[in-house]
Each structure stands twice: as structure tokens, then as C-alpha cells.
Amino acid sequence: MATFAVIGLGRFGHRLAARLAEGGAEVIAIDARRDLVEAIRDQVTVAVCLDSTDEDALRAQGVDRVDVAVVGIGANFEANALTTVLLRQIGVPRVISRATTDVRAEILAKIGADEVVNPERETADRWSERLLAPNIMERIELAKGFSLTQLPAPRSFAGKTLEDLAVRRKYKVNVVAIRRAVPSAPEGEPPRVVSVPGPDSTIQEGDVLFVIGSDEAIRALPTE
Q1: Are 135 and 223 in contact (CB under 8 A)?
Q2: Which position has the higher pLDDT, 223 or 7?
Q3: 17 pLDDT band (50/70/90 cuts)?
Q4: Beta bridge pairs of residue 94
């Protein structure tokens, strides 16, 4: 599973870091305010008080080795921008930065942010789901911890039946439908849907699966 750094532990950053940790990820939570760091210490892998514009301090905590860094600093845009640039410079593969206006979002994108999040429009819960399971296309919560999820069929599933894959026994999920594009279909024609697929239903490359199960089991499905 990917490792994360969440920098800026206001309402959005705190919630995001906690949700990522609940999902089983390793999370480094960072803020310049000690009280905010102490408030999340027991919920994440590492919580540390430091200046995120200090390269040496970030490297000392291993931030240069995380897979994804989220800059959630809201009040100080200068610190947000400098941190975004620094994360890119030290080699973090994916940097997501917070912006509260379209102009700031454009600036952050130009200086190195791969994606920009506006917490006034998007929730921390939704972003935690996207980060923990980037292959998931859509998710409908059925009950706490359980969902109907739409995701691309892993390439390793292609050419195999549901019985061959033992999806229910091995992965603890149920495939309730398969959406399949028809290559020769006229333009604009909707894809074919295999509803209630049986054990002999064969997965094809490019299929989209609709699965029901626990969020933990769905996140554990192979992505390749």
C-alpha cells in the first residue's frame, strides 16, 4: 500500500490523515502547530511538528520517500506554495495541494502540484477513498464499511471465468454485473451489461466490474 505525508492538520488535513491511517496506510502527519500534531499523534504512523518549508526537516522524517504528499495548509498560501515546490524538488512522486480559489489552484498546478483539492468543494473522506484505492471508478456506500464499487477488471483476470478466479472465496467480494464495450458497435451505442454474471462468465480485457463487499476487501483486489 502507498505511503503518505499529510502536511497541514487543520480540519481537512486531520480528517484525511486519520482516514488514510484507518484504511491501513502508513501516514506521516505534519504541522507547525504542536497542538494539532498532538491531537492526531495516536491515529497515524508518525506525527511531527516542523516547518514544512525546511528541506532538511522533511528529509529527516522520510518525507522524500513517501508515495504521495498532500499539502493541506490553508491559511498561509506562501507556505503552501513553497512546500509544494520543495516536495517536488526532493522527489515525491505525487503531490496534491490544497487551494481555496481557482487562481491559487492554477498557481499550484504551474509550480508542481499534480492535483489540486478544494476542501470547500470536496470532502476528506472522498479523497481518502481515491488515494487508498486509485483504481476505483465509482463507489456507493451500502452500509458502514460496505459498498457497491465500480472498477476496471485487472488484466490478470482477462480470459478467466469467475469460477476460475474464485472471486467470492479468494477475494471475499461478489461480482454483480460486468460492463463490456462492444468494439464493432456503432458510435454512441451503450456498452453491453452482463447482469448477474454466473460462475462460467468470462472476464474480458477492458471490462468494468461492479462488485459488492467490504471496503477492506475491495481495496485488496489486484489492480493489474
Answers
A1: yes
A2: 7
A3: very high
A4: 68
